[in-house]
Amino acid sequence: MEEQFYKLYPDSDKNSILSEISEAEIFRNYLKYKYNLQPDFLEIYSTNCGNNITNLLKLLKEENITFKNIIISQDATMQLRMEAILKKYFSENIKIINFAVYSSKVCVKDGKLCFENDIFGMWDIDRYITLLMGEIPRLTDDENGYGPRGTGYIAHIDIPENVKNAFLILKQIHGDKVRKADPSFTST
């Protein structure tokens, strides 16, 4: 992410963004640099999707912030998982509003997969495929997934049959791109 920021804003103050800072701090610096905005609160300790939610909930509690609605703005590849994590902690009376920060279409050009349109700050196509291919195993509610029958990190999700079938077809072609969870980032 830091590399992308510097590509997009090469004249930014590199001393203000160090490799040791969190993604949240990089986004904060982007908002300040681009729009001169500052967040009211910033959670900077998360290392994964689960931490994003649990640390956010901790911050909201510490600041005595109550809410009936929450907007999730996340990379589209992880959007559904973020909602499933939130649903693990909330009853039906909290409205979760998903806002994916981009929408992409993949096509074939010159025999290679690519994005139909350029997307500002987007992953390269190989990284995007890796992120997508890692989500279905995580979202699957079985002994290997993150649902209640697996690690219990997320609420149960019903994955549509056409999505499961598409994943199996893609796995035959891109099996090496099924991203494995890194146990060093495990959280509850």
UniProtKB/TrEMBL annotation:
Family matches, as Gene3D superfamilies: YdcF like domain (1.10.3620.10)
InterPro entries: Cell_Envelope_Assoc
Gene Ontology CC entries for this record: plasma membrane
PANTHER family: DUF218 DOMAIN-CONTAINING PROTEIN (PTHR30336:SF20), INNER MEMBRANE PROTEIN, PROBABLE PERMEASE (PTHR30336)
Name of protein: DUF218 domain-containing protein
Classification of source organism: Bacteria, Fusobacteriati, Fusobacteriota, Fusobacteriia, Fusobacteriales
